[in-house]
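Section: Multi-chain targets

For targets with more than one molecule, the full set of components is provided together so that the structure can be written out for the assembly as a whole rather than chain by chain. Components appear in the order listed by the source. The example entry contains two components.
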Amino acid sequence: MTLSTRSRPSAARRPRAGTAPTTGRRSRQARVGLLFVAPMLVLFTLFRLVPTAGAFLLSLTDYKLSGEWSFVGADNYTRLAHEDLFRESLLVTLTYVVVFVPMTVLLSLGTAMLLDRVVWGRGFFRGVFFLPYVTSIVLAAVIWKWIYDAEDGLLNGLLHLVHVGPFDFLGHSGSVLPSIAVTSAWKGFGYSMLILLAGLQSIPRSLDEAAMMDGANAWQRFRHITLPLLRPVLFFVLVIETIQAFQVFDAMYVMTGGGPVRSSYSLVYLLYDTGFKYFDFGYASAIGLTLFAVVLAVSLVQRRFVGRED
Amino acid sequence: MATTTRRPPAARAGRRLGGAARLTTPALLALTAIVTIAPFAAMVFIAFAPASGQTFPDAFIPTHVTLENFRNVLSNSDITRWTINSLIYSLASVLLILLFASMAGYAFAKKRFPGREVMFWSFLATLMVPFQATLIPTYILVSKLGWVDGYWGLIVPTLANSQAVFLMRQFIAQLPDELFEAAEIDGASEWRMYTTIVLPLVRPALATLGVFVFLWHWNDFLWPLVIGQSGEMQTLTVGLATLQSENVPVNQVMAGAAITVLPSLLVFGLLQRYLTDSIAATGIKG
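Its structure, encoded as tokens over all components, is:
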């Protein structure tokens, strides 16, 4: 899902050119093919397919750390529906998505458009904006936690210069999610920026020039030329960032521990605590599947829209 | 490529708005670049500042530069062990994923065998399942194998990387079939064809994929957090989070942070062009 739509999966289905394989050759090929795929197939079955099926089965049990379990049907899901903690964490996650996605997409689009227009130094700036992407979100969280610090932090130091503050960015329920979103956007916008820049550069210059001759202003050209032509790429970026935002956890774990008073306690945070603090594996699996359902829904919406495009 | 189609500056200079844009674009870029770099600069300043200098303007006026934070974090924490763990985790994963993914990619691209399509599409379909959704069952499986809190448990489950298989198949599919037919007529064994035709010809793809796999594992957090329960089995990311949560002085945390980011910066410095180009071309992402 994180792969670009430009790849051509049908390429391998093309029959081998020329000679028609004999039966002996065909069976040898089959044997060799299976041998080459075997290591990955074993790993894949064991650590992707089995856990995926396992998540469904576990979510119907009350599996505990001891390994004891009994079948409880849909109990875990009814519990989810009635648990305040789950509802709260879902709300926190949705709020985070609503704050983070527009922020990061606008930042990526803005920088991509600037890079597309700049005559000199494009490679340099592109490198600078991409730099945070190669670091870990834990590193970003550690640095930004200091930046937001109420006493020593960079941001309050700057605000102090204009006699404002101090403000405890991570200490208030209203500002904690935007502050974390800024951290994640800083860490990750370089990726979407590169995708959007590639999209922008594939738009023929002549279109823009023709519109300029006709007297279209910058906004009109953006609205009627750039935006429609960029739509598929923009949509790809939007979906990738949305799916990623729903999985938010690392930054919250490091920066706030879910606080203050669970106002940055996301769905994955709840999953982590349920699984590895309370060892309630069955219930935690049900939370995991809820996340899967949400991500799947987002991808299906993408299908729908991209389908309409053709 | 796009630079050749860029309109000449003269065409823009004629427009009033275009003239202004010529100045605002670099100005905005420079401003964004400063904001992007500032957190890294802050990290470096604080890491080299004396223990008292962790407050904003002070830390940025380096009265004297000291290595004491690095010395302290190295002696007071398990950071050396974490670095070794991160290196083992990342390098072993790179080697094994490149090997297994290129083998599977070769089979999917050039061999016909029963179940090929079903296998390939089920590999791809699991890209839709977020890792967190299967975290619990994967953990239970690993604990049944007795691999919790060890290198096997850390590394092996993360080798099932469908994105790597997909990319290798795309690249190997582009190699002309005639190469393999000629080698077959010469009596080359299948393993020989794989090592002497496939691997050398997809070396650029292997290099790109290798760099990405390294970064994914070096920066990975949730799986190492869950699986490395003792202090000794933590990776650098998990260790850094531990440092942050214990009452370690900010200067030392930042010194630790600077150590964790070093390999990423090295990779970035050497291969920046390479990384950015391959993202634009394939959309590869961790």
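DSSP finds twelve helices and no strands in chain A.
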